[in-house]
Design brief:
The protein contains 8 helices and 5 strands, in the order H-H-H-H-E-H-E-H-E-H-E-E-H. The longest helix has 21 residues. Helix 6 packs across helix 7. The relative contact order is 0.11. It has a 5-stranded mixed β-sheet with strand order 1-4-5-3-2, with helices on both faces. The chain has 235 residues and is an alpha+beta fold. It has a domain of 123 residues: Ribosomal Protein S8, Chain: A, domain 1 (2-Layer Sandwich). It is elongated, with a radius of gyration of 44 Å.
Amino acid sequence: MKPRKPCHTLKSFEELISALDLTSLPLDRHFKHQVPEEKLTSESEEELFQKEMEGVKPVSGKRRIGKIAKVEPAESFKEKDDIETLKRLEHLIHYGTGFNVADTPEYIEGAGYHIHPEITKRLHRGDFSIQAHLDLHGLIVEEAKGIFDQFMKWAVTYGKTGVLVIHGRGLSSPAEPVLKGKVVEWLTHGSWRKWVVAYSSARKCDGGAGATYVLLRQRPVSKRMKKRRVGGGKS
């Protein structure tokens, strides 16, 4: 038999403490190669970037994309543009100016027999009371015509002088706005022409170019009135 190796026995608690102090405990293998935090922060971002880019060759020739320069307007022009924008917003909020339907290609207007053109401007500005409205938006022409005739008959019967006809802007139409054009046709031709004082596109708050103000007479134009000239003839 092989002789046993001598066994060291600690006889007291004090001897155990002394043995622990003299023993060096090995480091865990997961932490042997850990880089101290100070070393990570000691290198600048530029140095780290240069290390990562070692061995990388720049692209040359036609495949290279040059630096895109951003052109900024001069401060004086930027300030001037900002001031102008703020002024327009201020006028739009406080006075309702800044966007005028009458300045767009969609604007329409017209006047009846012997009516001064200024009346259509006043109508568009909202100087006349609107007492009723008709919504034709989304209807086909045949349906819209029947409903339009009924509405106009009701309006003149009950003495309504200011009405609003909503027809839409016709943005989905392949060519010209269909209903909008028909409303103008019905107002300027046929039996309703003699009842119309003026018509114009509505203000933005009432539908803009998608609606039309109509100013109606209390009685239709007679043949005598048709022959009378503006500023002359018998009253």
